[in-house]
Amino acid sequence: MTTDTAQQAQHGLTEHSHGAGAPDHGGSAFDTVASFDVADHVVPRGREEEWRFTPMARLRGLHDDAPLDGHDYEVSVEAAPQVVVETVEATDPRRGSSGYVPNDRISARAWAEADKVLAITIPADVVAEKPTIVRLRGLSAEKAAAGHVVITAERFSQSVVVLEHEGSAAFADNVEIVTHDGARLTVVSLQDWAGDSVHLSHHHVNVGRDSVVKHAVVSFGGDLVRTSVTLDYAAPGGDAELLGLYFADSGQHLEKRLFVDHNQPNCRSNVLYKGALQGKKAHTVWIGNVLIRPAAEGISTYELNRNLVLTDGARADSVPNLEIETGEIVGAGHASATGRFDDEQLFYLMARGIPADEARRLVVRGFFTELINKLGVPEIAERLTATVERELALGEGLPAATSTTH
Amino acid sequence: MSTLEIRDLHVSVETEAGPKEILRGVDLTVQSGQTHAIMGPNGSGKSTLAYSLAGHPKYTVTSGEVLLDGEDVLAMTVDARARAGLFLAMQYPVEVPGVSVSNFLRTAKTAVDGEAPKLRTWVKEVKTAMDQLAISDDFAERDLNTGFSGGEKKRHEILQLELLNPTFAVLDETDSGLDIDALRVVSDGVNRFSASGDKGVLLITHYTRILRYIKPDFVHVFVAGRVAEEGGPKLAEKLEEKGYVDYVGTPA
Q1: B99 to A353: CB separation less than 8 angstroms, yes or no
Q2: Residue A305: inside a domain
Q3: Is A72 within the bounds of a domain?
Q4: For a Cys-Cys bond, which of A255, A259, B182, B244 suits B252, CB 3.0-4.6 Å?
Q5: Which residues in chain B have Cβ-Cβ distances shorter than 8 Å to A406?
């Protein structure tokens, strides 16, 4: 077993109450209340462990009682031929099939208020020849809305699903992702919102026997985007790769929370989240929680968060937590590193004639290229690279992060 | 015919105890077609001279001037110096993860030439240069200097020297850490560069070993931030025998 930590983890600083009365579904460990009943979740005030980084005043009351009955958005779907995309009633049995129980008030409210469910099903043995893309375009951030998506990858199917978010919205949603035996599924959630949007999103992934799941969250736009991904395993042999890419500009708050619940033996999880920040009060938060339960023998897990701070005045918080309840594992480790744009790299590139702006682009593009390649979805790779370039263009002219001497 | 002139150059670095002067009045003129060896004990300011010429932000020029064909080099940004024809082969090349060697070389070549190289001839040119330096093909797709061995880093510096084809090359201890085979490969590269036209070379080294492969026209001995002695190739032979003991009092 190996554990390495580039930056001291917050491990052990908070009291964890996992195990005690926690049923075998995800999201209940690490001090969370799991309930469908909104009333069971007290209104968070910002002092709670899971809210302490979030600017509560910018949540537009979504965590309290602000109505979620707005419908100012449109949805378009480009589905692969054999993939079934339907809008179904909230009573559809697929809803809840991931085993997820809302673990905070916003998630519980979105669960209660979403009157329709978007159900995406990849039938057994289908190998989808192209990604299925669902595009949600917000028309106004005035009235908040709730959403619910269930993605079901049946036995031995292979597919890619992309959930795109753009435009203006105040949006709270739950996304359930269920894979059956041997299914291979890639899900990419892309937040490319307009600057006035608030998005609070819960994803729960339930990984089937010998299933391979790649899940990615990509956040660019929006005033405040907070994504919580919980993942557990329905049976042994599951393999999960959790990827994240985020780029925060001046004033933006991008918060990425993860909870991997190793509740089954012989599974694997690998987390890689990378973020860049530029501009005054750009703020990113990454919380990576991994729990290895006593039953999870023979698992391996690794999580890594890297942040690149491009200018002064930006702040990246990064907190990995690893709880190990059995020693009979292959490996468990985590690392977190937050660095400034490296002056020595800049000097090296410039000393070869490359202008400063272009050198900066090369380095940041390089920083994200590894991740975009890992996504393995060529249909969106080019667009993600272009968006990174656009973000960089916004930052040009901003003074670079204060130099570090060597 | 080009000229690089260094006149009464004073350079200091910031330390916790305030600015510390490293170069204390360096005078040196390099004409194209010449190779100058700069030798000296550790801490004499050789690398500071190299990095100051390239414009590293850590070093502050307090007085003096550097002229490239009459143009004020010190007024130029780091990238402008490179485009004007100055090249620094670094002692410790920096790792840049995520940027491939091939992408980096093409970007640098485009910047230095002011236009993108023609794809077909460029690929061939890179391949030939890599072969000559005994660099394997997969190298082009590796991340810039990332995980390179010491020898690979140095050969990669010389690869850039040959491809970017500057007017003046400053080689900062390119020989250090190389085994004899690698030293020969690297020296051959520098000699090809010198022979390719009207080029000037400023070869900074601690040891005389590389001077068996690269023949200097002039040798300058650097001590305590200035040139203590200069002469022809014979001066290197004297240093080979006696080391720097005459200059610093102890064998270095």
Answers
A1: no
A2: yes
A3: yes
A4: B244
A5: 58
Task: Flag whether residue A399 sits within 8 Å of chain B, measured between CB atoms.
Answer: no
pLDDT computed for residue A169 by the predictor: 97
Range of the structural domain that residue A166 is part of = 38-341
- The lowest-confidence range among A312-321, B92-101, B220-229 is B92-101
Q: Assess if residue A386 is contained within a domain.
A: no
Measure CB to CB from residue B108 to each of A352, A356, A363 and give the nearest one: A352
The residue in chain A having the minimum alpha-carbon distance to the alpha carbon of residue B85 is A353
Domains of chain B: 3-247 (3.40.50.300)
Counting the structural domains of chain A, the total is 1
Output A7 or A29, whichever has higher pLDDT.
Answer: A29
Percent of chain A with pLDDT over 90: 80
Interface A-B: count of C-beta contacts within 8 A: 80
Per-residue confidence band for A369, with pLDDT thresholds at 50, 70 and 90: confident
Q: What is the per-residue pLDDT for A16? A: 36
CB-CB neighbors (< 8 A) of A367 in chain B: 97-98
pLDDT at B152: 94
Asked if B97 lies within 8 A of A368 by C-beta distance, the reply is: no
pLDDT at residue number B248: 75
**Looking at residues B110-138, what average pLDDT do you find?**
95
In a domain, A232, yes or no: yes
Residue A405 scores a pLDDT above 70? no
Q: HEC states along chain A? A: CCCCCCCCCCCCCCCCCCCCCCCCCCCCCCCCCCCCCHHHCCCCCCCCHHHCCCCHHHHCCCCCCCCCECCCEEEEEECCCCCEEEEEECCCCCCCCCCCCCCCHHHHHHHHHCCEEEEEEECCCCECCCCEEEEEEEECCCCCEEEEEEEEECCCCEEEEEEEEEEECEEEEEEEEEECCCCEEEEEEEEEECCCCEEEEEEEEEECCCCEEEEEEEECCCCEEEEEEEEEECCCCCEEEEEEEEEECCCCEEEEEEEEEECCCCCEEEEEEEEEECCCCCEEEEEEEEEECCCCCCCEEEEEEEEEECCCCCEEEEEEEEEECCCCCCEEEEEEEEEECCHHHHHHHHCCCCCHHHHHHHHHHHHHHHHHHHHCCHHHHHHHHHHHHHHHHHHCCCCCCCCCCC
CA distance B12 to chain A (A): 14
For residue B111, give the nearest of A347, A353, A363 by CB distance.
A353
Structure ipTM over 0.90, yes or no = yes
Task: Give how far Cα A80 sits from Cα of A84, A129, A158, A270, B28, Å.
Answer: 8, 7, 11, 28, 70
Tell me the shortest Cα–Cα distance from B24 to chain A, in angstroms: 22
pLDDT of residue A3: 37
Residues of chain A with Cβ-Cβ distance to B98 below 8 Å are 363, 365-370
Q: How do residues B24-80 score in pLDDT, each as one tens digit?
A: 999 999 999 999 999 998 889 999 999 999 999 999 999 999 999 999 999 999 999
Pairwise CB contact (< 8 Å): B77 & A356: yes
- % of residues, chain A, pLDDT over 70: 90
